[in-house]
Amino acid sequence: MLTLKNLSLTAADAQGRADIVKNVSLDVEDGKFLVITGPNGGGKTTLAKLIMGLATPTGGQIFLDGEDITGLSITDRAKRGISYSFQQPPRFKGITVHDLLRLAADIAVILDVDVDLLDHIFRKFRTVRIQLCQCFIA
């Protein structure tokens, strides 16, 4: 479970200090999906960066499965399963998702990754692609 307790980030601005994130407390149970919405400048991205460790809170604590991870590095948080993705993933002109997966597979073979795992990933990719096509057709 991810728990935020009174998480805050205050920054200096032209008028003095501005609360970017102020006393946010919440619990996200394992296996649950949480969506945070709000206006531009509302602190959504900053909150995600605080959880990932890309920004340092000025107050409060972050717990993962009961462990205080507030002071942990980005690497240590990633090792515990916390990740950060972009709203707009980077695009590579002229390369398809299939090409990226094939490149990853080639690298995995060089690094001696389990071939059965690669096959499983590609089968899942095909399933997702088919499901997406069905959504657009329907």
- Regions with pLDDT < 50 over 5+ consecutive residues? 128-138
Sheet/helix structural class: alpha+beta
Give the helix proportion (percent range): 25-40%
What average pLDDT do the residues reach?
A: 78
Written as H for each helix and E for each strand, in order along the chain, the element string is EEHEEHHH
Please tell me what the overall shape is: elongated
Give the helix tally.
4
Biggest sheet overview: 4 strands, antiparallel
Based on CA atoms alone, the radius of gyration comes out at 20 Å
Strand composition percent = 15-25%
Strand order of the largest sheet: 2-1-3-4
Distance from first to last alpha carbon: 37 Å
User: How many E strands?
Assistant: 4
How would you explain this protein's 3D organization?
The structure is a single chain. The protein contains four helices and four strands, in the order E-E-H-E-E-H-H-H. A hairpin with a 2-residue loop joins strand 1 (2-13) and strand 2. The chain has 138 residues and is an alpha+beta fold. It has helices spanning 44-52, 74-79, 97-110, 115-137, and strands at residues 2-13, 16-28, 59-64, 67-68.
